[in-house]
Amino acid sequence: MKIIVDAFGGDNSPGAVISGAYMAAKEFGDIILVGDEDKIREYAKNNSIAIDDVNIEIIDAKPVIEIEDDPQMILREKMDCSMAVGLRTLSEGDGDAFVSAGSTGALVVGATFIAKRLKGIKRAALSPIMPTDTGPLILTDAGANLDCRPEMLVQFGIMASCYMQRVMGIESPRVGLLNVGSESTKGRSLDMDAYKLLQKAPVNFCGNVEARELPWGVCDVVVTDGFTGNIALKLYEGLGGYFSNSLKGMFSGFPGAVAAASIMPRIKAFRNKMNTTDIGGAMLMGISKPVIKAHGNSDDKSFYRTICQARDCVEGNFIEEISNALKEV
Amino acid sequence: MKIIVDAFGGDNSPGAVISGAYMAAKEFGDIILVGDEDKIREYAKNNSIAIDDVNIEIIDAKPVIEIEDDPQMILREKMDCSMAVGLRTLSEGDGDAFVSAGSTGALVVGATFIAKRLKGIKRAALSPIMPTDTGPLILTDAGANLDCRPEMLVQFGIMASCYMQRVMGIESPRVGLLNVGSESTKGRSLDMDAYKLLQKAPVNFCGNVEARELPWGVCDVVVTDGFTGNIALKLYEGLGGYFSNSLKGMFSGFPGAVAAASIMPRIKAFRNKMNTTDIGGAMLMGISKPVIKAHGNSDDKSFYRTICQARDCVEGNFIEEISNALKEV
C-alpha cells in the first residue's frame, strides 16, 4: 500500500507533514511525499529525520497552491503544484490514497477533475469527523456543495454510512437528516424530499435530527447541504474552541492549579472525548480513491493519524463498499 | 403601558407566567394575563400571589394552542386560544406589547395575520439573543422563514440593528452576514446578493462572518435565512447545554467541590456570561407592535425578564425606529 501525501499544505508544512509521514512510514507501508524535493531533504536533514531509512519516496513539485488562490487554478496555472501532482499520481494508479492539508476548495476541484468521481456519484462531499458524548459522528456535506439536490443528500448519506461501517467499525450506522424539527414534514422542500428518499435508501435512516441533539451523539452520520453543514461544522469547532479556552482560563494561575489538581482525571477525560485529532481529517467522499483533507493546523501527530486514516480506508475497502451500496439504489 | 402576556404557553405555565407577571406588575405598569381565568385565580390563591393587589387584568380564554398543533390552527379551529386572544387584544390597541412562550409556529402565523406586519416588511423574523464573550448578539432569522430572498435578509438586518440600538443601547451595532467565508464572493447566490444589498443598507455592515467567530463576539447582529439560523441557534444552545452539563459533572462530588471552592468566582463569571435568561426571549421582528417569544422552559424570573424586555421595546420606540429606517431604503 502506498499513501501519497502533499508535503506543502497546511499551516505547519512541510515540517509537520514530513515528521508525520516519517512516523507512518516507520510503522507501516510506503509513503510518497509530493513537493519541493530540496526543501524536503533540507528539513529532514536539519531535523535528523532519516527519511532514506524508511520507505519514503519523494516526487518533486515546486509550485504550491495557496489558500487564497482561486480553487480552479489547480486545473490551469497551477497544474504542477504539489496537490495536483499528488492527485495525478493517485489517478495514474501509483498510490492508493491521497492526503493534503492544503486549500479545501482546490482539493475538491482537483480531486473531482484529476482523480475523478466514482461512477454514478453526482458530487463529492466533504465529510469531517466531529466528537460527541458517545463517540465520533461524520457530517456530510460540510462545504463542498453549497447548493444541493435531494438525491445528492441521499448519496452523501450512503457514502458516509459505508465509511462509518468499514473504517470506524460501527455495525449499523444511524443516519440522520439535519433539520429544524423531528417530523417528516419539517424543513425546506430539499429536506422533505431528501427525507422521503432516505427512507428508501440502503441505510439505517433514523429520521430528522435537530442540531441541539448533535453533541449527545444522537446519530453516527449527519446529512445536510454543504452550506448548512459548513456553518454547523464551524460553529461546533468555534464553540468547542471557546469552551476549551474558557476551561483553560478557569484552571490558570495558582487557584486554578489547585482546582485542576483535584479533578485532573475528569478534565483529561473530557478533553479526550472532545478531541478529534486522533481520528484524522475530513474524507472527500465520492472520489474514485480515498482522498482526505487534513486539518489546516495539523501538527506531526495529526498528519500521522490522517495517514493512518487513509490506510484504514484502503484496508476497509471503503470505496468498493460505496460502489456496491450504490448499485442497490 | 400595558404588556399582554399569554398565561398558557411554555413548559411551566401557568404558574411561572403568573409569578413572573406579578413580579413585573409590582415593579412597573399594567399587565394583562390572557387565559383560563378560573385556573389563573386558583393558582394565584394556592400560591399566595396577590394578583388583585397589583395592576393585573385577566382576559378569559379557555382553549390553548399546543406545540404539536398545526400553527395555522390559530387562524381556524383555535381562534379563541389564549395566544390568539392576546394577539387580538394587541391588535385592537388595548395593549402595547405581547409575550408568549407558546408554539413558535403559531406565534409567527398569529402575529403576522392577527397583529399584522409593519408596512413595507416582507416577512417577520424570529430573532433570539445569544451570549458571546463580549456581550449578547441577536440572530435573525432563526426559523420563521426557511426560504428567504436577499431583500428579506436586508430587512432582518435593519430591524435587528434598530433593536440592538434602541433596546440594548449599542450605538452602532455591527451587522454581519453568516457565511462560509469572509470574501464577498462566498456563499450561495442568496448570500452574495444579500451582501451587495447590505453594503448599501442603512446599517453598520461589517461583511461576512464565519460561524466559528460567533462565540467571540465578532458582531452584534447576525443575519441569515431561517433554516440556517435555526440550525445555528439550536447548535449554540445544544453545545452550550452540553458543556454546562460537562462542567457540572467535573465539579460534582467531593473532589469536584474541592476544585470548585478554589475557583468559584471564575465559574460564576463564566456562567453569568453564558446566561441569556436575564435578557429575555426572542423578538418576532417586523410585526406592527412588539411581540416576544419567551423561551419554552422559562421560569418565573425568565418571564419577568421577558416582560421587562417588552417594556424596553415600548420605551425605546423600537417599532417607530424600524419604520424610520425602512424609509431610508
Averaged pLDDT of chain A? 94
Order of strands across the main sheet of chain A:
3-2-1-4-12-11-5
Q: Radius of gyration of chain A, Cα only, in angstroms?
A: 20 Å
Q: Structural class, from helix and strand content of chain A?
A: alpha/beta
What distance separates the N and C termini of chain A?
A: 31 Å
- Given the C-alpha coordinates, what overall shape of chain A results? globular
Largest interface: A-B, 47 and 47 residues
Helical content of chain A (DSSP H or I, runs of 4+) = 40-55%
Beta-strand residue percentage of chain A: 5-15%
Q: Show unreliable segments of chain A.
A: none
How many extended strands of chain A? 12
What's the multimeric state?
homodimer
Order of helices and strands of chain A: EHEHEHEHEEEHEHEEHHEEHH
How is the biggest beta sheet of chain A arranged? 7 strands, mixed
What's the helix count of chain A?
10
Q: Can you walk through the features of this model?
A:
Two copies of one chain form a homodimer. By secondary structure, chain A is of the alpha/beta class. Helix content of chain A is about 45%, strand content about 15%. In chain A, the strands form two sheets. The first copy, chain A, has a seven-stranded mixed sheet with strand order 3-2-1-4-12-11-5, with helices on both faces. In chain A, strands 6-7-10-8-9 form a five-stranded mixed sheet, sandwiched between helices. The first copy, chain A, is globular, with a radius of gyration of 20 Å. The model of chain A has no long low-confidence stretch (mean pLDDT about 95). The interface between A and B is large, with 47 and 47 residues.
